[in-house]
Design brief:
1 helix; eight-stranded antiparallel β-sheet; mainly beta; single chain; 15 strands; binds magnesium ion; globular; Jelly Rolls; 236 residues
């Protein structure tokens, strides 16, 4: 008995297990090779389109103020709209709510990043500012509440990294694939591949209306002096 036990222990220790059989190369993929994108630690990915590097608004239509490397909403002047059109994208954008607190709820540091001029990731000072949670910073406005509140205090720069897939429409204009978004706020995941029910409307239920496959990016004038900087975008 003791001998049998000893042999079993030795067999286990020797790693007598089922070895996989077959050719490992059968499951290797070699082509096509992913394109090399240079990613400088202090800069922009080499395949990105820089929409604002702090110098001018040549990529935009609108009358906001550019100074000291940032562009700031001029309340009442209207939205800032990109000259180029985009569909599926990865967007990096940095924003800052005014340091001086004015107003409450939706009236404190409100702006917004609108993909295709329709689908808003809310910009708001949500550091210590109660409002409806599907309208706080990082919400997909009135559709998706952020998973957590990653807000920094007003006056500090914050970032959004947004992965957006545009909706697809059939030839009869019916939506066949809804838009989706993933959002990181200051590097923290707050929207995890959520589906949009339609444009992010202020009143009523969202309803898709067929539109072009590419549309401009829009930054919202919501009567607050929110600033933006370091805006770049990658077409997917
Ligand atoms: Mg807004």
């Amino acid at each position: 008995m003791r001998t049998i036990l000893f042999v079993s222990v030795v067999a286990l220790a020797a790693g007598v297990t089922c070895q996989p059989t077959g050719n490992p190369e059968a499951t290797e993929i070699w082509k096509p090779v992913p394109v090399l994108v240079r990613t400088p630690s202090d800069g922009v990915p080499s395949d990105a389109i820089v929409l604002f590097d702090g110098s001018d608004l040549s990529e935009w239509q609108g009358d906001w103020t550019v100074e000291e490397g940032r562009v700031t909403v001029v309340p009442g002047s209207g939205d800032l709209v990109s000259r180029r059109d985009f569909g599926d994208v990865q967007l990096h954008i940095e924003w800052r709510a005014p340091a001086e607190i004015e107003g409450d709820g939706q009236d404190r540091g409100n702006s917004g990043v609108f993909l295709m001029e329709r689908y808003e990731v809310q910009v708001l000072d949500s550091f210590d500012n109660e409002t409806y949670v599907n309208g706080q910073a990082g919400s997909i406005y009135k559709q998706h509440v952020p998973l957590v509140n990653a807000s920094r205090p007003p006056g500090e720069w914050q970032s959004y990294d947004i992965i957006f897939r545009a909706p697809r429409f059939a030839t009869d204009k019916a939506v066949v694939e809804p838009a989706t978004m993933t959002v990181l706020h200051n590097g923290v995941l707050i929207q995890d591949h959520v589906e949009l029910a339609g444009p992010t409307v202020y009143i009523g239920e969202p309803v898709y209306e067929a539109h072009e496959t590419k549309r401009p990016l829009m930054l919202q004038d919501h009567q607050a002096s929110v600033s933006y900087r370091n805006i770049w975008i990658r077409e997917l």
